[in-house]
């Protein structure tokens, strides 16, 4: 479903030149505006979604009085030195522009629901609610120029290009570091014993992960991580090794044929059995059998 930024504003003294240039990527909408300003212009803005306002170019004076309340004293912003602002969802902004003739700016609207799914627990909601007004950062400006150029590009590049740029800017904005991997607790001794015995007893067929997780009384995801923490390998790999060990026992019987061993240990055919055996043991079943007889 397309993300529609919800923004309310009351503005005066601004004239949009040439219309809106918009691109949408996964969870972020980018708008480039060219605006002509009267000698005194201003407005009131509030958005249901967090956004970032970035001045790309300006002509004329450089004064903009930014206020967080209509009666507040405000802060004078210099577009050439403080042309970036991050405004959280629902935060009201009043602005009075003086003697600026023209502004090109990039607006980025962030869908936190989509970005939260992409970044998972790395996204800190407290940072999303913290405004950063009237600041300067060369890295943001470089990314913003590339994003704006893609919005204006008559032959846009692959969506992954713009997506990468906008997500990189958002990650830098939120100062998101790489999460330390979560340490998983191993299985209890009784859980591991029950699962291993079950695998060995049923090595002749494919065992579903759900079966093993149920034996341990855990969810499938929790069980997979705990089993690997206990054994150093995934449940499927452990089961495959058990099947190969069973196959070795059968191969040591002189009368055992490769086709019958493959069937008895749950492989689809002899070719499949040979591929897996070579991967696990490092040689073919026939060669391994001859080496054991020697």
Structural features, described:
This protein is of the alpha+beta class. It folds into 2 domains: 168 residues, Jelly Rolls, CATH 2.60.120.10; 105 residues, Homeodomain-like (Arc Repressor Mutant, subunit A). The chain is 41% helix and 28% strand. Strands 1, 2, 3, 4, 5, 6, 7 and 8 form an 8-stranded antiparallel beta sheet that branches.
Q: Which helices and strands appear, and what pairs or packs with what?
A:
Layout: E1 7-16, E2 21-25, E3 28-47, E4 51-67, E5 75-78, E6 84-87, E7 93-110, H1 112-119, H2 125-128, E8 132-135, H3 138-152, H4 159-174, H5 189-201, H6 209-216, H7 220-231, H8 235-251, H9 258-264, H10 270-281, H11 285-293
Antiparallel strand pairs: 1-3, 2-3, 3-7, 4-5, 4-6, 4-7, 6-8
Helix pairs in contact: 3-4, 6-7, 9-10
């Amino acid at each position: 479903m397309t993300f529609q930024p919800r923004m309310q504003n009351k503005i005066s003294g601004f004239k949009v030149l040439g219309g809106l240039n918009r691109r949408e990527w996964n969870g972020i909408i980018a708008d480039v505006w060219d605006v002509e300003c009267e000698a005194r212009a201003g407005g009131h803005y509030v958005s249901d979604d967090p956004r970032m306002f970035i001045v790309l170019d300006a002509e004329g004076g450089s004064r903009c009085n930014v206020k967080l309340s209509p009666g507040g004293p405000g802060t004078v912003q210099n577009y050439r030195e403080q042309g970036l602002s991050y405004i959280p969802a629902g935060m009201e902004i009043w602005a009075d522009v003086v003697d600026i003739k023209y502004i090109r700016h990039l607006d980025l609207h962030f869908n936190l629901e989509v970005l939260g799914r992409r970044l998972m627990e790395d996204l800190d909601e407290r940072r999303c609610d913290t405004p950063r007004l009237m600041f300067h950062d060369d890295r943001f400006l470089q990314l913003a120029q590339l994003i704006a150029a893609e919005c204006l590009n008559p032959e846009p590049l692959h969506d992954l290009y713009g997506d990468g740029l906008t997500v990189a800017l958002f990650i830098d904005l939120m100062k998101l570091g790489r999460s330390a991997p979560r340490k998983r607790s191993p299985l209890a001794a009784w859980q591991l014993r029950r699962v291993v015995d079950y695998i060995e007893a049923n090595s002749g067929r494919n065992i579903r992960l759900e079966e093993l997780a149920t034996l341990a009384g855990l969810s499938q995801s929790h069980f997979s991580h705990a089993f690997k923490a206990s054994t150093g390998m995934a449940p499927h790999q452990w089961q495959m090794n058990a099947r190969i060990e069973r196959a070795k026992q059968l191969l040591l019987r002189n009368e055992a044929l490769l086709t019958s061993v493959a069937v008895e240990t749950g492989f689809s055919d002899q070719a499949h059995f040979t591929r897996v055996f070579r991967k696990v043991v490092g040689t073919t079943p026939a060669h391994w059998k001859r080496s054991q007889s020697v």
